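To the team - PBG complex, inputs and output below.
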Amino acid sequence: MITAAPWSRLRLRRTEHLRDLLAETTFGSAQLIQPVFVVEDLIGSEPVPGLGDTARHGRAAALESMARDLAAGVRHFILFPVPSSKGTRALSFSHVASTVEAIKREFGDALHLWVDICLCSSTTHGHCAILDDEGAIDLDATLEALAQAAVDAASAGADGVSPSDMMDGRVAHIRAALDAAGHRQVPIMSYSTKFASQFYGPFRGAADSAPQHGNRRHYQIDVRARRDAIASSIRCADEGADLLMVKPAMTSLDLIGPIGEITGLGVGAYQVSGEYASLVALAEKGFAEFDAALLETLHVLRRAGAAFIITYGARRARALGLS
Ligand code: PBG
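Output:
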């Protein structure tokens, strides 16, 4: 039996040059996507509690914030449009369309704009679906509404759409609607493995999308159900998704590799609001150094195989001088 020599592991961890030499993960602005909340009728900006420098913006303020991010090197954004009027069945996506139009008019192809497609900010009850009189999911009506939202976003100039609702069949439905409207080139980045989670709290305040009754466990995935989690991504791939995404990031780490291997598609991870807020809170309490903690989590997501990362820390990571 070989007895490992003393120092055999410690020797190569000793200096920064050696640690950098042996680092196997990197990421830069090309792999980071910055979320943006644009609230209809809001003037100026208001901070999102718990999320550090993240704010909800009125349209003009959003354009200013994105201009600063772009100048700092952020290239990818995902838009969360928050409408001021809500409905139950007949939903309007005019705020989505006009916001996308304004962003693309201002910045053109200097940025890549994904648009989150969901109904929870548009419905009075805050669920990601249209409900029937008994309160059950009306799947056909929901798919129609999601497809409409996606077509409106694409027609306004969105560079990609990103359905986050977790309704069966939505990717196929959206793909068909986009193609029929002449948007064959617009990719779908599907929230393909999205768990029911306690970690969406700060987001729901920002997006004004907290469910007014019940919870989302009847359409988001149970963390205990590994097969369902993988099959949901496979289903999205089969329905024509171009990119897949797991969320929350830390509750999906073990699934990124398998999903990528089975589907052959790029799989991203969404470091969701509660995960980011936990880093902010640790740092506020003096228990961690924020920047180092952020980078630590992003490297682990890359190590797990994430092709790209959606994080409220995209602009912060840029400020830290990443490529
Ligand atoms: C909307 C949506 C949610 C998130 C992204 N899109 C919230 C939810 O499903 O309740 C969460 C993002 C975050 O927490 O940062 N369907």
